[in-house]
Design a protein that fits this description.
By secondary structure, the protein is mainly α. It has a single domain, classed as Amino acid/polyamine transporter I (Up-down Bundle). The protein is about 80% helix and about 0% strand. The chain has 19 helices and no strands. The protein is globular, with a radius of gyration of 20 Å. It starts with a helix and ends with a helix.
């Protein structure tokens, strides 16, 4: 960030960056959305990347950290600068038709995501002999109960607790004992002429930058009541989450590559059970099931909360119905009704669908195809709707525009080139 923006930020928030009281008050939206970013679809995409290409997609996970932070940091500016959620701000800035276009893209992304989250939950249940219907019913009931309490802070705490189970993937990566030289050599090899490799690159882009993340974080910051004096600390919240989520992705890729991909180059994963068996030589059957189950269950549950809330907030911001977790269900029936429809509908869809990794990877590629719309609206709002003290200025403004354009272009281009090659 250039000196002008840095000085600007200092004026916005005189509170010390690491003030404990401020950090505890602000911490939440960034970490929650990033933990949800490493959802079931993302984990399975990273695992498939390691199984098919070893460490070669590891470099991409690192390169995406600053891009992910840059994108989500714009939602903080927009939220504290305007006091409006993403859908509402698009409606007020560009009109209702553009707002509905954005909401349609959100709906597509959320439908795909909620299916993968519940597919992961069902897959974990089957690892331990729990019938698919039973695990889906328990998960849906838990998600409805958590959000039905009518408290944003309570939902946030539960989401963080669930998401922390994803940290078990660090243990899995360490247990796999990857060879440092092999990791470095693999990460530097980029077979960009291979269609299946390009397809997985597009999938990894879509697994990191998702429409519902932008809607969720901006709306969550507004719902939590954060203001301009919280801006600087909220950026630390998002930076911490961005690093954490990409390290989890890297850990999954490394663990799979070390335990499977480097030994059987043509192997492909079809289910959560396949992934568990792939890690059995590294962890043993019992520990493999337990650690993988905890990681995927935490990822699926926190993402299901975030995805369903993003949909309910996004549609509410376009239509104007009451939309806050501080309202009781009977005070905001449309908001809670849409959240419940997402949870129950996702569970019902998965009850009759197979748990396919291929489906999850395909959904992430769809997210990559949505990047021009998603990033286009976000950058356009940052250029037009921000007040002067939060506006993008100088070189950083052009850096944001350039990186957003490049990221969206690469996602679409690689997704098209890779079609039919996976």
């Amino acid at each position: 960030m250039d000196a002008t923006v840095g000085a600007q930020t200092e004026r916005l928030n005189p509170v010390p960056i690491l003030s404990r009281a401020m950090l505890l008050a602000v911490l939440g939206p960034g970490v929650v959305v990033m933990l949800a970013d490493t959802d079931v679809g993302s984990i399975l995409t990273a695992a498939q990347s390691g199984a098919r290409w070893g460490y070669q997609l590891l470099l991409l996970q690192v390169l995406l950290i600053p891009i992910l932070y840059m994108v989500q940091e714009l939602t903080i500016r927009l939220a504290v600068g305007t006091g409006k959620g993403h859908g509402e701000l698009i409606r007020d800035t560009f009109g209702v038709r553009w707002a509905w276009l954005s909401a349609a893209g959100l709906a597509v992304a959320c439908l795909g995501a909620i299916v993968t989250e519940f597919a992961g939950v069902a897959g974990v249940g089957e690892l331990f002999g729990v019938p698919r219907v039973a695990s889906l019913a328990l998960a849906a009931a838990a998600l409805l109960a958590v959000v039905g309490t009518g408290s944003y802070r309570r939902v946030e705490r539960v989401a963080i607790l669930l998401g922390l189970f994803e940290l078990v993937f660090f243990l899995v990566a360490v247990a796999a004992k990857p060879d440092a030289h092999a990791v470095l050599a693999g990460a530097l090899r980029q077979p960009l002429g291979d269609r299946s490799y390009l397809y997985l690159m597009a999938a990894n882009l879509g697994a990191v930058l998702m429409p519902w993340m932008i809607f969720y974080q901006q709306s969550a910051i507004v719902d939590k009541g954060l203001r301009r004096e919280h801006y600087r600390t909220a950026r630390w919240d998002t930076a911490l989450g961005a690093v954490m989520t990409q390290l989890v992705m890297a850990a999954v890729l490394v663990a799979t590559a070390a335990g499977l991909g480097l030994r059987h180059a043509t192997v492909s994963l079809a289910t959560v059970g396949d992934l568990s068996r792939a890690l059995t030589p590294v962890l043993g059957a019992g520990a493999g099931r337990l650690l993988l189950g905890l990681g995927i269950l935490g990822a699926g549950m926190v993402a299901a909360i975030v995805v369903s809330l993003a949909a309910a907030w996004g549609v509410g911001e376009v239509t104007g119905y009451k939309r806050s977790l501080e309202h009781r269900p009977w005070e905001a029936p449309w908001f809670y009704g849409l959240y419940a429809a997402g949870v129950v509908g996702g569970a019902l869809l998965v009850a009759v669908m197979p748990d396919l990794v291929t489906l999850s990877v395909g959904i992430e590629v769809i997210n990559a195809f949505l990047l021009p719309v998603v990033l286009g609206f976000l950058v356009a709002l940052a250029c037009r709707a921000l007040p002067a003290d939060l506006a993008l200025r100088g070189g950083y403004r052009w850096l944001v525009i350039a990186l957003s354009t490049l990221t969206a272009g690469v996602g679409v281009c690689f997704g098209v080139l890779g079609l039919g090659g996976f």
